[in-house]
């Protein structure tokens, strides 16, 4: 049994907390909204994020950061990716010296270009840091449906031991030592899901969606490898696995966001879609590495309003014809 603190009382933080309580861990959630914490403690629900799903009675939530973090052996960062740095800075005074920190948000910091583990390390440099990512909808996990994700730490043995500790019930963790690869896959698949959603919303057909997923995956691998990922990791749960899930289910907020954009609907009231916040920094990083990423670039232009979905379709379809795997011909 471990003492676990979850930072973020939204859909994913609450679902992970529910799974870990079910495994016998002592879990405390920190949420910035006192009313949400009160609802989790008293009514055992988090309706704004998880509807009527029933949460464990011994799951505790608090808006008091010191209370949530003090004494925790494992701390998971589950607030939106762009807020991870601020959350990390705010826990420093309360954190046990040997606490292990796990990044669970999927996104690249759009100010610095850092991955989530780097954002955390910049604030809390003396801690072991890992990453948890893979195909997993909070709505599935909170209902106890089978889910497999990847847990990466810089040392394989440490990853293995933590994956063992946090696996159980319907959640199965696979261990990896490719901490960069796991988070790059998780960040870029959100952008691809928006692109495929735009295609769905624009009524471009199932063949076009399959083509975009495949060519989007080729980009994800090209850019991911240039950024330090291992290609095999990008073929795993946190890469291809999560790309498939997020590009195919309307439960995905990124996919749903893309669909709304493709239909020309108002997106201002939609839920968190991390790809919206990662797309422009991901395109900047691709430019810096000299990596061609037409799907991601076109998605960025549609999201910024520089191009319509229809113009994006024309732009992608009129690119020069080329080899499908140019790198294999050399
Ligand atoms: N929902 C899922 O199925 C799922 C699955 C895997 C990974 N994730 C990832 O987990 C991260 C969180 O997603 P989520 O689904 O829980 O989002 P959410 O929108 O459901 O919840 C986000 C939570 O963070 C809080 N929050 C927002 N801004 C904050 C800030 N500046 N400081 C502190 N707290 C803040 C919100 O109040 C809310 O409690 C995302 O990066 C997402 O990609 C989500
Ligand atoms: O709802 P999304 O698009 O943020 O996707 C949730 C998870 O990342 C799926 O693995």
What does the model show?
- With about 325 residues, the protein is α/β, with parallel strands linked by helices.
- It is about 50% helix and about 10% strand.
- The protein has 16 helices and 8 strands.
- The protein has an 8-stranded mixed sheet, sandwiched between helices.
- Helix 9 runs parallel beside helix 12.
- The chain binds nicotinamide-adenine-dinucleotide and SN-glycerol-3-phosphate.
- The site of nicotinamide-adenine-dinucleotide (NAD) has 26 residues, from helix 1.
- Pfam families: NAD_Gly3P_dh_C, NAD_Gly3P_dh_N.
- It catalyses: sn-glycerol 3-phosphate + NADP(+) = dihydroxyacetone phosphate + NADPH + H(+); sn-glycerol 3-phosphate + NAD(+) = dihydroxyacetone phosphate + NADH + H(+).
- Pathway: Membrane lipid metabolism; glycerophospholipid metabolism.
- InterPro entries: 6-PGluconate_DH-like_C_sf (IPR008927), 6PGD_dom2 (IPR013328), G3P_DH_NAD-dep (IPR006168), G3P_DH_NAD-dep_C (IPR006109), G3P_DH_NAD-dep_N (IPR011128), NAD(P)-bd_dom_sf (IPR036291).
- Its EC number is 1.1.1.94.
């Amino acid at each position: 049994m471990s003492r676990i603190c979850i930072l973020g009382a939204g859909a994913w933080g609450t679902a992970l907390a529910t799974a870990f309580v079910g495994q016998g861990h002592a879990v405390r959630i920190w949420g910035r909204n006192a009313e949400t914490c009160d609802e989790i403690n008293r009514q055992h629900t988090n309706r704004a994020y998880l509807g009527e799903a029933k949460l464990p009675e011994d799951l505790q939530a608090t808006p008091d950061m010191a209370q949530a973090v003090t004494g925790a052996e494992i701390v998971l960062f589950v607030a939106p990716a762009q807020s991870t740095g601020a959350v990390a800075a705010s826990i420093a005074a309360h954190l046990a010296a040997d606490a292990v920190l796990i990044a669970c948000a999927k996104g690249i910091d759009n100010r610095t270009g850092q991955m989530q583990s780097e954002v955390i390390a910049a604030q809390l440099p003396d801690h072991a840091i890992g990453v948890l990512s893979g195909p997993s909808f909070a709505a599935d996990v909170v209902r106890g449906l089978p889910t497999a994700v990847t847990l990466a730490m810089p040392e394989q043995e440490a990853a293995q031991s933590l994956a063992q500790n946090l696996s159980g019930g319907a959640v199965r963790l696979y261990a990896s030592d490719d901490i960069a690869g796991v988070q790059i896959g998780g960040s870029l698949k959100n952008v691809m899901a928006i692109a495929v959603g735009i295609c769905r919303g624009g009524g471009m057909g199932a063949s076009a969606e399959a083509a975009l997923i495949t060519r989007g995956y080729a980009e994800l691998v090209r850019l991911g490898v240039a950024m330090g990922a291992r290609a095999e990791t990008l073929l795993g749960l946190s890469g291809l696995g999560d790309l498939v899930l997020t590009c195919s289910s309307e439960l995905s907020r990124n996919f749903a966001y893309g669909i709304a954009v493709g239909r020309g609907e108002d997106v201002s009231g939609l839920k968190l879609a991390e790809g919206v916040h990662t797309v422009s920094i991901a395109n900047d990083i691709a430019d810096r590495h000299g990596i061609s990423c037409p799907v991601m670039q076109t998605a960025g232009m549609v999201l910024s309003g520089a191009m319509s979905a229809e113009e994006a379709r024309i732009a992608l379809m009129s690119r020069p014809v080329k080899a499908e795997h140019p790198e294999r011909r050399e």
